[in-house]
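ESCALATION

Customer reports they have been waiting on this structure for their group meeting. Please prioritize. Original submission:
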Amino acid sequence: MSAGQTPTEIKRNVCVYCGSSSGKGPEYAAEAIALGRELASQNLGLVYGGGRVGLMGLVADSVLDHGGEVHGIIPEHLVKAETAHQGLTTLETVATMHERKARMEELAAGFIVLPGGFGTFDEVFEILTWNQLGLISKPVVFLDSTGYYAPLFDAFDHMIAAGFVKENYRVLLNRATTVGEAVRIASSPAPVVDGKLIELDITSKKTITS
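Update from on-call: job pushed to the front of the queue and completed.
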């Protein structure tokens, strides 16, 4: 938590991870715009990557258009590439991607994931890992009315079945099909789960054969 920032201020912010592209179908844009409207109607601030292009720009503009607050965090090297949004409530420029991700986590009480590419996956998997380790306890939900993340959730099932993710961490993997459901999950307390650091799988105690 930053100096001078109260838990109440953090509680009313939801971080949205999403693409700097809009995708090939109109359904992706419609979902982003609907999410922004819902966040504003619930008096929840948006924390996001600070760009005005793609789904990033659409969700930010939607929050602003409906009277909400938007806090953008963008690294210096992406100010031009992602076309930093100059009309936000606040726009912070940081030095690195690591600082961006840490600052977004710091400001948010929960996370909603819209469709996106490598950057979106990088952001959400780090937050899922931090929750798994017990470093944070903040809800994460994939807003997936379009079915974009269906293959990913199939992969999650495979990871659990193969023994690389424990079954008890499935509660970290929320998936919503409506904006109302996604916002409710992201603004509610995170599920209780023991962090991985408490009970590590010590491979040295096992006999491993080639």
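Sent to customer with the following note: The longest strand covers residues 70-75.
Escalation resolved.
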